[in-house]
Design a protein that fits this description.
The complex is a heterodimer.
Chain A lengths: L6 H4 L1 H14 L2 H28 L9 H4 L12 H32 L9 E4 L6 E4 L5 E5 H6 L2 H16 L2 H14 L4 H23 L2 H14 L11 H12 L11 H30 L1
Parallel strand pairs in A: 1-3
Antiparallel strand pairs in A: 2-3
Helix pairs in contact in A: 2-3, 2-9, 2-12, 3-5, 3-8, 3-9, 3-12, 5-8, 7-9, 7-10, 8-9, 9-10, 9-11, 10-11
Chain B lengths: L2 H4 L8 H12 L5 H7 L6 H13 L3 E5 L7 E5 L1 H17 L16 H15 L1
Antiparallel strand pairs in B: 1-2
The chains are: A mainly alpha, B mainly alpha.
């Protein structure tokens, strides 16, 4: 086994590097699709790399002991046992993180679903805190508080509804779930996950602006709702700075391109897949040499 | 994106929720005419009335005599359903503080600097 098995664990850093730029400059839709694809594929190669390293422990299996005692037996480029053992611990941690992240996201949605009777898929909660969330499902629902409805005028309320419906129409929860899962597997992908979280809001803003034909209106609704929110920014999620960035982005013309900015994540994916293929061939070679002798 | 959502015209399917939102925002019973003027874009009086009846059938609004000499009904949102919804929403979000972070939220809280920045951004546009 050579360095090609280790490098895919680090290459997701390139996806993270591209994420910030994509978040500010690129068309949200293209950026989300690109970042989610790159995150998932590079996270998958991370898991595969770890799995290959763990599998090199095969010669320590009791059933294989007999083969080990063959004279002249010699593993080509073996992985030290301590590396393989570490990899197994890391792999277990990755999978536990992944399960936790997916569970939290899904159980939150499950608890909010069917929260009350709906009008056109909109459920109103009588709560002074201005909140508006999209709750995916079949059909999805928009959950709005009376606090939110009271701080906005009629046009702004339409902007919020259009924004939340855009989340549901484009199944943004899937993008966020995948990016979150990838970041749970490989922490180097966390900036990419945060960028995706931000970009789906931008995407929904842009779509609301298009459907209402008014960018300033959406900007005003976002700003007004944020100013009325009494709770501080949630510890793990969006910070206030995000709101300012969204409002500023709506005051600029809609971004139209994403192509060249997606080159870096694409390169990271291609490199990961190529290295992983190489590492897998190496592993197969080791396995054959060991089994056949 | 479907055709009806593409243009600046409102989506036909979203009327019920807009009427609901208007009733909640008003904070007092509204007559169909009152709802009509509380909505931004012009809707036919009959359309508003049809939607109100539909919401009444869904038990989302209540109605009573309009009073003050005017004939017809005034409508207000059914508080009990919304209170129950709020209780469920709070229970879901309070149980684990990290739940709110995994939701797609329209707006989030602000830090002190952001409040000023946002206010000036709004003022700039309104001027």
């Amino acid at each position: 086994m050579t360095w090609t098995v280790y490098l895919p664990l680090l290459l997701p850093a390139l996806v993270a590097l591209a994420a910030r730029r994509l978040a500010e400059r690129a068309r949200p839709r293209a950026a989300v699709l690109g970042l989610v694809t790159a995150s998932v594929l590079t996270a998958a190669t991370s898991v595969w790399s770890l799995l290959l390293l763990v599998l090199t422990l095969f010669d320590d299996l009791p059933a294989m002991e007999a083969l080990n005692s063959r004279s002249g037996m010699h593993l080509p480029e073996p992985v030290p046992d301590w590396v393989a053992t570490t990899a197994s611990v890391v792999l277990a941690a990755c999978l536990i993180n992944l399960a936790r992240d997916v569970h939290l996201r899904r159980s939150t949605v499950r608890r909010l679903r069917d929260a009350g009777p709906d009008a056109d898929g909109v459920v109103v909660a009588d709560w002074a805190e201005p909140l508006a969330v999209a709750v995916p499902g079949r059909p999805g629902q928009v959950l709005l508080t009376t606090g939110m409805l009271k701080v906005l005028d009629a046009d702004e309320r339409r902007a919020v509804l259009a924004h939340e419906r855009a989340h549901l129409t484009h199944r943004h929860h899937v993008a966020v779930l995948l990016a979150g899962g990838a970041a749970a597997v490989n922490p180097l992908l966390r900036p990419a996950r945060d960028a995706v979280t931000y970009l789906v809001e931008r995407w929904a803003d842009e779509e609301a602006a298009t459907s209402l034909g008014n960018r300033d209106l959406v900007a005003r609704a976002v700003a007004r709702a944020a100013l009325a929110t009494k709770q501080p920014a949630p510890a793990l999620g969006v910070h206030g700075g995000v709101i300012v960035r969204r409002v500023k982005a709506l005051h600029r013309p809609a971004p139209t391109t994403a192509r060249w900015q997606l080159a870096l994540p694409a390169a990271a994916v291609i490199a990961c897949l190529a290295l992983e293929a190489n590492a897998t061939l190496d592993f197969v070679a080791v396995l054959r040499a060991w089994l056949i002798g | 994106m479907s055709d009806e959502e593409a243009g600046p015209r409102r989506a036909r399917g979203a009327l019920e929720s807009e009427v609901m939102a208007a009733l909640w925002a008003a904070g007092e019973p509204l007559t169909p005419a009152g709802v009509q003027s509380a909505l931004s874009a012009g809707l036919a009086y009959n359309t508003v009335q049809t939607i109100l009846i539909r919401l009444l059938e869904k038990d989302l609004v209540r109605r009573g005599p309009a009073g003050r000499g005017s004939r017809g009904h005034a409508y207000w949102p059914a508080q009990d359903a919304a209170t129950l919804t709020a209780a469920r929403m709070r229970a879901a979000l309070d149980e684990r503080p990290d739940r709110q972070a995994v939701l797609q939220q329209f707006a989030a809280g602000l830090e002190a600097d952001d409040v000023e920045t946002l206010r000036s951004l709004l003022a700039e546009r309104d001027a």
